[in-house]
Amino acid sequence: MTDKEIIDAINAATGAALRVGGRAENGKLGGAIYVEWPTGNQSVVTRFRGRADDARRTADVLAYVRARGVPVPRHQLVVDLGEAV
Description:
Layout: H1 3-14, E1 19-23, E2 33-36, E3 42-45, H2 52-67
Antiparallel strand pairs: 1-2, 2-3
């Protein structure tokens, strides 16, 4: 899938209305997609190796430790696109 197709699929599944802003040149899965929310905030879309339930559990654990001051990423959205999370 192209970056636009991935973001279109996320938007269709969630109504997030993300816009593609570019792509990171490096990364284990070919680089992350930079996106912009309708509010103007920027985020990074990455792929998760595993099931959506596992990604949600990972997001919950990271939110827990982040709330306690550990500098870890914030997962704003976990989306199961069938072939990718």
